Amino acid sequence: MKTPKKKFISVVGTRPNFIKLAPLYNFFKSNESVIHLVCHTGQHYDFSMSKVFFQELQMPEPDFFLGITGNTHAEQTANIMTEFEKLLEKEKPDLIIVFGDVNSTMACSLAASKLNIKIAHVEAGLRSFDRTMPEEVNRIITDVLSDFLFISEQSGLINLKKEGISEEKYFFTGNIMIDSLVHNMDAIDNSKSFSKFNLDSGNYLLATFHRPSNVDKKENFLEIIDFLLETSKKIKIIFPVHPRTLSNIKNMGLLDNFNDNIILTEPLGYIDFLCLVKNAAIVVTDSGGIQEETTFLGVPCITFRDNTERPATVDIGTNILAGTSIVNLKKIMNVFYTGKMSEKKQIPEFWDGKTAVRIGNILLEKFYSK
Ligand code: UD1
Ligand code: UDP
């Protein structure tokens, strides 16, 4: 007798989630044994933060859109949970798949867990050991609730073991974000987005900042802007601005603090942005995903944070953890100007474009083999 089809719902809400979903979406698209549906919570909603990724990564509109709002963490989390619970009651999936560490990830895991629905967490086990970061709380809760934990780098294995998560639950499958990068490399190379901004390949700095700790406090953000202004005397800078950062620039009245040497743009689509990363002389960021993409591409990256949940990028990749002192950031930039940045360019294990296939096959085996 034929086994009835299982129903999996992947949940996404923010820019990095969409990029992590695409490879798994493609895996299930070509597999007829599973009904795979996508739910978008609405956490990110601007065209440039959401729809552009579905278009560029060739995914259709999500099957469900929760359209949540909420100003505080509790409001956002509670609203996602309320709407997602209704969807779960109606759809009765066998599994939900969540990605990364954002509020949508944690809220949907919590709602599913209370209904005894199985949870798969893609990008499990990462830890910054800094609970002042909202993402760290989301990671810990999601991992505790998950039934299948898919780990992106070695540190995840160590962390989950230490936390006493049962070994049968976790799998070292590699980095799904790198799958998207590998699959789109031709388009990224063809984009030549740097020339649209009159930049020369290998001769500009790419900056992104969106962590609340860097951009929500005026004094911290002002220091970052001063650093960018000083640096722009030596190298051209492009700064695609995240909506949180833009609203702070406006609300704090900081727009006039920038000058023409710094190109401020809207958030960019995936292909154009990755082309800018690949051709940058150096990247300065507080993003999680960009630390990984620069390591894969061998582009020097300075991470303006006190910690990273992605230590492989520092230990064997091109990432330098600068802390949040501008003095230190300037010191590292001085090393960069002399051309003496570290040459280490190892790519972590299983960052090879095949992570979604590994994850998909494990899930099929778990749900279909007796
Ligand atoms: C969220 C994640 C963060 C992740 C980042 C990726 C949490 C707690 N934070 O941070 O881990 O690194 O996404 O980019 O889940 N906004 C818009 N348009 C949009 C999206 C957001 O205007 O399309 C504005 C809204 O005013 C919103 C603010 O940005 O209140 C912050 O958005 P939110 O999703 O709460 O947090 P992020 O800073 O984007
Ligand atoms: N990204 C993008 N356009 C941009 C900035 C970032 O496509 O203007 C991509 C980036 O390449 C990476 C992901 O968005 O794949 C990272 O998102 P973000 O930095 O917002 O979140 P984090 O990884 O810090 O959670």
Account of the 3D structure:
By secondary structure, this protein is an alpha/beta fold. The chain has two domains: 6-175 and 351-368, Glycogen Phosphorylase B (Rossmann fold, 3-Layer(aba) Sandwich), CATH 3.40.50; 186-338, Glycogen Phosphorylase B (Rossmann fold, 3-Layer(aba) Sandwich), CATH 3.40.50. The chain has helices spanning 15-29, 51-56, 73-91, 103-114, 134-145, 154-162, 176-183, 185-191, 193-196, 212-215, 218-231, 243-251, 270-279, 289-297, 312-315, 326-337, 355-368, and strands at residues 6-12, 34-40, 64-65, 95-99, 118-124, 148-151, 170-172, 204-208, 236-240, 262-265, 282-285, 301-303, 319-321. The strands form two sheets. The chain has a seven-stranded parallel β-sheet, sandwiched between helices. A six-stranded parallel β-sheet has the order 10-9-8-11-12-13, sandwiched between helices. The radius of gyration is 20 Å and the shape is globular. It binds uridine-diphosphate-N-acetylglucosamine and uridine-5'-diphosphate (UDP). Uridine-diphosphate-N-acetylglucosamine binds at residues 14-16, 43-46, 49, 101-103, 134-135, 210, 242-244, 247. Residues 14-16, 43-46, 49, 101-103, 134-135, 210, 242-244, 247 line the site of uridine-diphosphate-N-acetylglucosamine.
